[in-house]
Amino acid sequence: MKDSFPDFVDLYGELVPSFDHEWEAIAFYFDYRQTQLEELAQLCHFHNISLDYSEESLYQLESLYFDAFTKQLFAEWKMPIDALEAMLSVYMGEVVLRHHSDADWVVRPYMDSPHQYTLGLRRHNKTWHSTQFCEHLYLEKQDSHPYVSMYQSLMSL
Asked: Superkingdom, according to UniProt (predicted)?
């Protein structure tokens, strides 16, 4: 019976990028973060949202996200929802970094793979090796502020 269900570790592992050298992974993830922030800045400029790395900016982004979902703006933007979720995830990580000197982005090998690396956010002695902190936010109630709550939980550790 177990064989009929996918092994999620293997499925995730197929999505993790491969590199010949660790420095290539570090450069790739640095570029990835910069690209996500640049694309988010362009979108926010259009919607008059200031990305000042404050908690208030997180509320504004959360409102934009839910407006985009309820008003079906993703089709107008020609952007899949997971693309905005990736941008929001990187931005949230950057907000945490700007408010905590003990936080940083880390690139680490994936499991026992000699060539696969993941990006993580480390704070204190805990590391989250997912760059999708905001995946499927639309499943949460907007009134509970799931995006801001996620940020606050990372801040309180």
From this structure: Bacteria
The domain ranges of the chain are 19-155
Q: Which two tokens stand for residue 125?
A: 């002695």
Distance CA 105, CA 123 (A): 9
Give tens-digit pLDDT for 124-145. Answer: 888 887 777 788 888 888 888 9
Q: Is 78's pLDDT higher than 90? A: yes
- What is the SS3 string spanning the chain? CHHHCCCHHHHHHHHCCECCCHHHHHHHHHHHHHHHHHHHHHHHHHCCCCCCCCHHHHHHHHHHHHHHHHCCHHHHHCCCHHHHHHHHHHHHHHHHHHHCCCEEEEEEECCCCCCEEEEEEEECCEEECCCCCCCCHHHCCHHHCHHHHHHHHHHCC
How far, in Å, CA of 55 to CA of 68, rounded?
20
What's the pTM value of the predicted model, to 2 decimals? 0.87
